[in-house]
Amino acid sequence: MGWPKALPPFLALALVVAGGCSSSQPAATAGAPIAATTTTVFEVSASTTLTSAAPSTTVAATVPAAIPTSAADLGSSWHPGCPVGPDDLAVIPIRYWGFDDQPHVGSIVIHASVAEAVDQVFSRLYADHFPIRRVEPVSAFEGDDNASMAADNTSGFNCRAAVGAGPARWSAHASGQAIDVNPRENPYLLDGEVLPPEGADYLDRTVGRPGMAVAGGPLTSAFAAVGWSWGGTWTSPDYQHFSATGA
Question: pTM here?
Answer without folding.
Answer: 0.76
